[in-house]
Amino acid sequence: MANHAMSLSNRKKEILRTVVELYVKAAEPVGSKAVAEALGSGISSATIRSDMAELESLGLLEQPHTSAGRIPSSNGYRLYVNDLMQNQNISNDDAEMINSTLDGHAIEQVRLLDEVGRLTSRLTTYPAYAMASATGIVCIARFDLIYVDCSTFIIVALLSNDTVKNKLVHLTTNIEPPMLTKLSAVLNASFTGIAEERITPALITSTERAVGDSSGIVAVVAGFTIELLVEAKTIGTRVSGAINLLNHPEFRDVDKAQRIIRYLSDEKELARLPSPESAGEIKITIGPENLADELRDSSVMAIKYDAGSDIQGLIGVVGPTRMDYSKVAAHLSYMAQGLSLLLGGIGSDSLQLNAANIINKTGDDNIGEN
After folding, report:
1. 264, 287, 334, 357 — which has fewest CB within 10 A?
2. What angle do the packed helices 32-39 and 10-26 form, to 10 degrees?
């Protein structure tokens, strides 16, 4: 994409930017006459038509019908986001709405996720999701395997955050108490004190060899352990405004909209959505850059914020590739800054945000390309 940006003349860049912004507003293919009127710089429609044809040959524009205007391709949106998009400030009314939601007093974390999700969806007109998770390492401190009968035992796990979880396991083969005792000792030596990403197939296989397990018991315990550790890091996940998809022409096909709505209702799938590496950064994935089939015609934009006390939050939106990227970036940046101020312990007296002081970080340094 960088090669395209370097090879394009300033005029072609301006034409591409104009096509994207006109298409975002109207959801209709853009013709050379509309571009000429928007630019108002004396460039002839014939010249613009020629430039648009070249942009199409580069894969940055598409022509849905022979006689129609052009629309941006996924690559066109990517170049726009990386190089052409202009920063946008949110309106004073929107700033006041966000400030009044966040200002005043601390809100319990899960309730705050609800408020943030609803407000983000309302301001952007797209489905929004909000998450909070612990950034510190949670691990298993101790395992106990309790014999019930020859085909049943209980896994008891003490986590490093002092919570205790258990699971009743029914086997299709028999197991004896000495085997559980041996397995407990090996698990306490190998599976405690480590994060879930270190519980690898290689570790599971070596543990099975160490105890002579051919029944898959170690794999069951490992699966339960990973599930516990992921769950312990997740404080909450909320999705708001999924029905807003139906307000956009790309999703008037109800089946298509329902596939995305079902996807957004699955917390495990949400946890796999693209995420920025650090607080304050925006991550945008466009169309086929998304790995999930349900999102191949959609764009996802997300930003992280520091929620204090080893907690990190994330706000994101899902919408058509014809997303108003600049507007969404402005609102997410403003919301994230306000949440960092509120939850970082600075206090409500310092939460004096205004619509003009947000600089959106949407350049190459912090927008990931898959």
Report:
1. 357
2. 110
Global pTM reads: 0.71
Residue 89 contacts residue 327 (beta carbons within 8 Å): no
Q: Tell me what the pLDDT averaged over the chain comes to.
A: 86
Tokens 């066109």, located at residue: 76
> Each residue of 33-63: pLDDT tens digit?
999 999 987 889 999 999 999 999 999 999 9
Domains of the chain in sequence order: 4-84 (1.10.10.10), 92-127+241-355 (3.30.450.40), 140-233 (3.30.390)
pLDDT in tens, 97-134: 998 888 644 556 667 888 899 999 999 999 999 988 77
Residue 317 zone, left/alpha/beta (φ > 0; ψ -120 to 50; rest)? beta
Name the percent of the chain in helix, strand, coil, to the closest 5.
50, 20, 35
- Quote the longest CA-to-CA distance of the chain: 87
* Helix or strand run (H / E) with residue 189: helix 177-190
